[in-house]
Design goal:
The chain has a nine-stranded mixed beta sheet with strand order 11-14-9-8-24-22-17-20-19. Strands 2-1-5-4-3 form a five-stranded antiparallel beta sheet. It is mostly beta strands and 440 residues long. 13% of the residues lie in helices and 42% in strands. Helix 3 packs antiparallel against helix 5.
């Protein structure tokens, strides 16, 4: 029997919790969250016993999906503990699949917005702490809460369509519920999504970068047609001899049921689709020695205006080229501790703002609807910071549509058997995970 279940973010914030014993509180998850933040080798093992030396010590079993931790707590000496943790792990994976079908894209926002719905799903799949095997189609009749749509990605809604009809499509392939699909529609979505982690020196030199990506597909068609994708480059970790301009990967992991066609050199994949369900075609990580092109380059300079005031000059250049757009780019930095206020002026895109928080001395520069191939500038006067004051570093957050760092592109999309009047949507999206920029 399970004692509790929760969904937690990477920062250790509990987004959803369900307790199956009346005497328990959310404090039961604290040992797991503590182990998560203090583990010297990354995430803790998938199943471990809390380090608390009490007779009521708990076992924690979890899976990591969509940047979220799905955690179950087992009591000491329970039947599930004696039988092993494989059943709990499989049940958590199954719960994740059900929630992704119901809610679409699983993010912190969609989890908190659909608390009532997820509570119903947990009640059905973990009935009072007793695991139940369920599938989305069997649960449909028992779910009464309606799905609250997650915030639409402005990157997709603002970007021009690959096939000229972008505005009529949902913002991402995973934001439609399988239970809300109009059977009269014939649509296929393919998403290429990448996340960027980077450390950048002053002047724009990339010190270290890590790019992780995935290719996802979702088909809203009856039956189970076979989807075949052809890429512009190989997804391989094997070094090639001679001069090679292709994408180099350090890790490549194909989804369940994906058939790699060797005759195409690892560029063509086939998989059987499921109506309304998201399918992971492949996940990959760019090789460390791959020349990383970040979507933006930030440069900065400082100068003294008066003995008490200094000016910070920021210039942000887009490297994504024409036809792309960043719906929102944000740069955050901390001003010198004596700064009392800031005055600013900007140039470039129209929708720019500079906000100063006196409490934590944080300066936030926000640019919306930033077109590719352009640049933006901000001139920020730091009042009472000292004439020689400088700002050392900051964090850059962004979301770019129709562009990915790796250069991976979908060249051909086919369904077998062929389907008439089919709308095919291909998305490219790059988001920042953590991009730290040195300014001096």
């Amino acid at each position: 029997m399970l004692q509790a279940f929760c969904i937690a973010s990477k920062r250790g914030e509990v987004l959803f919790a369900s307790l199956f014993e009346p005497k328990l509180t959310k404090a039961i998850f604290h040992p797991f969250l503590t182990e998560l933040s203090s583990s010297p080798h990354g995430d803790p093992p998938p199943a471990f016993v809390s380090v608390e030396k009490t007779k009521d010590g708990q076992n924690y079993v979890y899976v990591f999906r969509d940047d979220l931790y799905w955690v179950c707590v087992l009591g000491k000496g329970s039947l599930l503990e004696l039988c092993g943790h494989l059943l709990v792990t499989e049940s958590l994976c199954q719960l994740h699949r059900i929630c992704s079908v119901l809610c679409g894209a699983l993010t912190q926002h969609s989890i908190t917005a659909n608390t009532a719905l997820i509570s119903e799903v947990v009640h059905e799949t973990m009935n009072g702490g007793f695991l139940q095997l369920q599938t989305p189609d069997k649960l449909q009749a028992h779910i009464y809460s309606s799905v609250v749509s997650a915030k639409e990605s402005s990157a997709v809604s603002a970007a021009p369509g690959l096939f000229g009809l972008e505005k009529s499509a949902p913002s991402t392939a995973s934001q439609q519920s399988a239970f809300a699909v109009d059977t009269g529609k014939r649509e296929l979505y393919v998403d290429v999504v990448e996340k960027v982690w980077a450390s950048v020196a002053s002047g724009g030199t990339v010190i270290r970068a890590e790019v992780t990506g995935s290719i996802l597909a979702r088909c809203f068609l009856p039956g189970n047609p076979t989807l075949t994708l052809t890429l512009n480059t190989r997804l391989s970790t094997t070094p090639e001899e001679g001069f090679n301009t292709g994408t180099r990967m350090s890790e490549v992991e194909f989804g369940s049921g994906v058939d790699v066609c060797n005759k195409e050199g690892g560029q063509q994949f086939s998989v059987m689709t499921l109506p309304g369900q998201e399918i992971t075609i492949v996940r990959y990580i760019l090789a460390p020695d791959h020349p990383h092109l970040l979507p933006f380059t930030l440069t900065a300079s400082s100068q003294s205006l008066t003995p008490s005031d200094a000016e910070l000059r920021l210039k942000l250049t887009s490297n994504t080229g024409m036809g792309t757009i960043a719906p929102q780019v944000t740069f955050r930095t901390v001003a010198p501790p004596t700064t009392a206020a800031v005055m600013s002026r900007t140039s470039g895109p129209r929708e720019q703002s500079v906000h100063f928080s006196p409490d934590n001395k944080t300066i936030t520069w926000t640019i919306t609807q930033f077109p590719g191939g352009s640049y933006a500038q901000a001139f920020i006067r730091l009042v009472d910071s000292g004439g020689n004051a400088t700002v050392e570093s900051g964090e850059l957050e962004f979301e770019v549509s129709r562009w990915v760092c790796s250069g991976v592109r979908i060249e051909c999309v086919k369904l077998n058997p062929p389907t008439n009047n089919l709308n095919k949507w291909v998305r490219y999206l790059t988001t920042s995970d953590s991009v730290s920029v040195r300014l001096t």
